[in-house]
Amino acid sequence: MSWLLPRLLLALGAVLLGFVVGVSALAVTGVEPLSMALGTTAGVAALLIVDAVRGHRLLRWLRGQQLENAPRDTGLWGELGYRIERAVRDRERVIERERVELEQFLSAIEASPNGVIILDVQEHIRWCNRAAADHFSLDPQRDLYQRITNLVRAPAFVAYLQAGRFKEPLVLGNGRGPGTLSIIVREYGEGMRLVLTLDITERVRAEAMRRDFVANVSHEIRTPLTVLAGFIETLHSLPLTAVERDRVLVLMNQQTQRMQTLVADLLTLAQLEGSPRPSPDRWVALDALLLRIAADAEALSAGRHTLKLKPETQVELAGVESELLSAIANLVTNAVRYTPEGGEVEVCWRRLEDGSGELCVVDTGLGIAREHIPRLTERFYRVDGSRSRETGGTGLGLSIVKHVMQRHGGELLIQSELGKGSRFRLVFPAARVRPHSDAALGDEAAFGGAALTAGE
Ligand code: ADP
User: Fold this and answer.
1) Fewer Cβ neighbours under 10 Å: the N or C end of the chain?
2) 424 Cα–ligand 1 center, Å
3) Is 146 helix (H, G, I), strand (E, B) or coil?
4) Is the sign of the CA dihedral 219, 224, 227, 232 positive or negative?
5) From the CB of 378, is ligand 1 less than 6 Å away?
6) CA 201, CA 207: separation in Å to the nearest integer?
7) Does 119 sit in the ligand 1 pocket, CB within 6 Å?
8) Residue 131 pLDDT greater than 50, yes or no
9) Confidence of residue 445 (pLDDT cuts 50, 70, 90)
10) How far apart are CA 287 and CA 283, in angstroms?
11) What mean pLDDT is predicted for residues 435-445?
């Protein structure tokens, strides 16, 4: 009630003014009623004028943008101005806080990898984030307030929006290539719609790969199983001679081995995918690995090829011995299997300028046509299925090699020419190659200088 006292004082002042005017008028006119009327009018007029001036000032401030403070009057108008200003400032603070919160909220949606579009009743775009703009090739500024069906014309999308049945998401090619989008629409408010888009290209690809993989494994296992079932039936129902029986058992053994090899390769792949990256400080002597591999390859070749499989590398590789053995052995046995009798298979090693090391497996065999090369490391990809199976292949060998190399920070490079032969290169990063510790004692200095030509 701080305004009450000044208000009373003002009224008192007006009464006094009226009194003074009345007394003065009486002295001049000598007419009492006229003097009283003049005095009262003067007092009321004074009150009204002061109120009108203060009220006008406050009203002018209110009509403006309230950037300055409200008029600092005393009394009723002053307090009124002060309280209105406080309410206005409080409201401004709330609006500012809500604006900041809205901005943060929109930035969070903007950062989302999923697309978000807000549509009004007429399907005009009211807001959309960058991901949605990318998914539909929209411009988040220019396309605002445009009808979405004018911009995204995929018939399935238009029909989905128009049908208004949004229980199931719509799966759509994303228009920017072979990608796939999952689109969900939610209705809210009065006819507003929220369109959520999710890029599921990878998921779709992974599902297709998984399906293919299961189908391939089933096929690979079913074939030897069918053959085995046939042989069992034969053994059961036909009176075979001892020789015939032995022959059937040999064939059965072959099929069993085929399945064993396949399961072993599948397990190797599963292990490679599931285990942590090989540690960079477990060193494996390459020459010892090559000796073991050469022994197996010589047995496989049985003298049909010229083999040069034991270069003196005198290096160690950092990694998992069994994985490195498996990768190199796969390449060497492939070279023997896909090289006709009389051909040559060679393993060579060299250090490259940047310190990395390269192991090559070169053959003079069948070679591979250019179009097959990019797909060779896919699981179960075979150029010539019957030759692969005849020679005990599973179609998983190069896939294993690629995985091993990736896990060791290296890569598998393939060069081949149909009818002339192939060169498979395993490149190991510098950090995973060092001189063999025995060799290092005497040869370390020489190794550094001769590194570029070693094995060439
Ligand atoms: P597979 O068990 O069938 O040999 P891989 O994954 O090891 O499976 O090889 C995939 C395909 O690549 C093989 O089926 C074969 O057609 C081809 N290939 C691999 N190595 C060679 C090579 N040294 N010469 C010719 N073709 C090869």
Assistant:
1) N
2) 11
3) coil
4) negative
5) no
6) 10
7) no
8) yes
9) very low
10) 12
11) 58
